[in-house]
């Protein structure tokens, strides 16, 4: 069977060679004659995997001194709570730009006082709020770099007077960022980094240890740091597989190349959405995501026909999220430009044939 054009929103496309290398590790891990699935996480071969993964993340993202990199379970969703456990004393400030940001607000409220500094909920999360003020008496400011479900993306980050925390689950490694602006970055791996099951946390050590509450061990970043991200058994296989993907990112040119590819894919698709009368975008142009492009049919009665056309072309995963509707093409790092070309061709042909009807 030929491979489908995989626009899945997450878990999502990985480079074929990372999948092959992951399979090889399942068969025979680092020449041990054993599978990576059946060896101790404390053995020297796996400790080397963890260290190499931390090193390659530092290199790819340009992580400065003073930061630790953790590989935790529980998904980005657990970070919504963990951030508040570790940082929230008097007040957390939040930018509410989508469903995930709203969930982060909800979880933080279990632990303390939350101020939503700005929200785009009034227009169905179709833009990124601007001109807001981050209160300087907050313990931290939390934002979501890319709104995976509705398809908006922060094109720049504010100069925050307090520690900035960012959920980068769906656009990490797709563009250059200045890590030093952030006290903490987290990302569930299953969009741009690897398979589901591991969450990457990049945390500046000096922001920790400032809250007075008792933090349960599994929720405590410092406990995980002290145990070199092995306080409990880490998600061994997702880490191993993520490393295979990160090696691919590095080999093909690093984050700069990922950024170039993301821009090319997004330009091609948005250009078609804007020029083809059968489709319309849903997000303010200046805030559009390069990772998740959301669009609607101008005439919803053509839905069945359009669905048949893209399925016929071997396209998979462009149905919109159940809370947003319409279509969403997720274009993560491993998606080849040819897949976007295939989708654009379907859209063009669909328009041409509707004209001739
Ligand atoms: C997918 C996603 C999440 C949720 O991640 P889980 O690993 O399923 O908990 C959170 N934030 C953003 C921005 C996401 O895209």
Concise synopsis of the structure shown:
The chain has 357 residues and is α/β, with parallel strands linked by helices. It is built from 9 helices and 14 strands.
Notes on the structure:
The chain is α/β, with parallel strands linked by helices. It has two domains: 16-252, Aspartate Aminotransferase, domain 2 (3-Layer(aba) Sandwich); 254-356, Aspartate Aminotransferase, domain 1 (Alpha-Beta Complex). The protein contains nine helices and 14 strands. It has a seven-stranded mixed beta sheet, with helices on both faces. Strand 3, helix 4 (99-109) and strand 4 (114-119) form a beta-alpha-beta unit. Helix 1 packs across helix 6 (236-252), helix 2 (44-61) crosses helix 6 and helix 7 (254-275) packs parallel to helix 9. The structure holds pyridoxal-5'-phosphate (PLP). Pyridoxal-5'-phosphate binds next to helix 3. The site of pyridoxal-5'-phosphate (PLP) has 12 residues, from helix 3.
């Amino acid at each position: 069977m030929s491979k489908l054009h995989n626009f899945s929103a997450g878990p999502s496309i990985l480079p074929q060679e990372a999948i092959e290398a992951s399979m090889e590790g399942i068969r025979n891990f680092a020449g041990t004659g054993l599978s990576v699935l059946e060896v101790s996480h404390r053995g020297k071969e796996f400790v080397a995997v963890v260290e190499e993964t931390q090193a390659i993340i530092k290199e790819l993202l340009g992580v400065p001194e003073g930061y630790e990199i953790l590989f935790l379970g529980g998904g980005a969703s657990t970070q919504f709570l963990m951030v508040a456990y570790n940082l929230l004393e008097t007040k957390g400030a939040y930018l509410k730009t989508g469903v995930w940001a709203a969930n982060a607000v909800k979880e933080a409220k279990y632990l303390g006082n939350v101020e939503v500094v700005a929200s785009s909920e009034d227009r169905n999360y179709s833009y990124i709020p601007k001109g807001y003020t981050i209160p300087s008496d907050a313990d931290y400011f939390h934002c979501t770099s890319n709104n995976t479900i509705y398809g908006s993306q922060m094109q720049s980050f504010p100069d925050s007077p307090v520690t900035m925390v960012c959920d980068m689950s769906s656009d990490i490694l797709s563009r250059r960022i200045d890590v030093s602006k952030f006290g903490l970055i987290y990302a569930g791996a299953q969009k741009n980094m690897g398979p589901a099951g591991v969450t990457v946390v990049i945390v500046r050590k000096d922001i920790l240890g400032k809250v007075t509450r008792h933090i349960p061990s599994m929720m405590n970043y410092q406990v995980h740091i002290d145990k070199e991200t092995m306080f409990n058994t880490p998600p061994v296989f997702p880490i191993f597989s993520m490393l295979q993907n990160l090696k691919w990112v590095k080999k093909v040119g690093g984050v700069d190349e990922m950024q170039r590819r993301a821009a090319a894919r997004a330009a091609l698709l948005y250009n078609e959405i804007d020029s083809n009368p059968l489709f319309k975008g849903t997000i303010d142009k200046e805030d559009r995501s390069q990772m998740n492009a959301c669009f609607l049919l101008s005439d919803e009665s053509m839905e069945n026909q359009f669905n048949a056309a893209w399925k016929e072309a071997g396209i998979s995963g462009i149905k919109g999220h159940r809370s947003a509707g319409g279509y969403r093409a997720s274009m993560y790092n491993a998606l080849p430009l040819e897949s976007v070309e295939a989708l654009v061709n379907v859209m063009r042909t669909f328009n041409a044939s509707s004209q001739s009807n």
